[in-house]
């Protein structure tokens, strides 16, 4: 009985410690832009709290994030999976916005599917023909449907039609679990991560989803191929072992 009580107390202690630990220690991913300044991606990777990062590339027709290329190269070098996002503008055409994004984002350097960022202030007055065209242009260029980042309000107003059901949804909600379907949840805008000065957005997956769901086709195919090779090798080893015995 005494042993059981000691075990229970120790388990309770570690549970409380985990609950009280800084939220960044439980983060699965982050999304960043020029507002995080220069990031030490080596430190970010060593923290082991960040598995992936979505990096702002462009906004509208002419805005290009000055830290984008350095962030992409340094993050990938540090071993962090990266994806890129474009911030939607209601002031310019889909073709103009896509051209801006394409000029910055190399398909070869993308580990994760691209994201179209539609901020919450677009609720109630979004040009869906323009949005659809931009989504289609991104899909044609990168070979995969983009993920849609937005607020619950915008999602409820514009993205509940059946034609959007194949898209992964990235929901921003800092007050509680999203009440709409989602793949990725931006649950904090005040996270702290080693290697980044100041606040950073923290993202985590719905329990039914994982990083694999967001892989670009080439990476998904590679992972599947590697898994098949491992299975074949394991099977061969077992067969060889049986024949020798």
Structure description:
The chain has 245 residues and is an alpha/beta fold. It has one domain (22-215): Glycosidases (TIM Barrel, Alpha-Beta Barrel), CATH 3.20.20. Helices cover 39% and strands 19% of the residues. The protein has helices at 2-20, 41-46, 68-77, 94-104, 128-142, 152-158, 217-244; strands spanning 29-32, 52-59, 63-64, 81-87, 115-117, 147-151, 169-172, 184-191, 200-205. An eight-stranded mixed barrel has the order 1-2-4-5-6-7-8-9. Strand 4 (81-87), helix 4 (94-104) and strand 5 form a beta-alpha-beta unit. The longest helix is centred in the C-terminal third of the chain and has 28 residues, at 217-244. The protein is globular and about 45 Å long. It starts with a helix and ends with a helix. Residues 1-27 and 228-232 have low confidence and may be disordered.
Tell me the helix content.
Answer: 25-40%
Strand content: 15-25%
| Relevant CATH superfamily | Glycosidases
- CATH architectural label: Alpha-Beta Barrel
CATH topology: TIM Barrel
Order of helices and strands: HEHEEHEHEHEHEEEH
Mean pLDDT: 86
How many structural domains are formed by the residues?
Answer: 1
The radius of gyration is 21 Å
How many strands in all?
9
In terms of structural class, how would the helical and strand content be classed? alpha/beta
Which ranges are low-confidence, i.e. pLDDT below 50, for 5 or more consecutive residues?
Answer: 1-27, 228-232
Shape assignment: globular
Strand order within the widest beta sheet:
1-2-4-5-6-7-8-9
Number of helices: 7
**Major β-sheet profile:** 8 strands, mixed, barrel
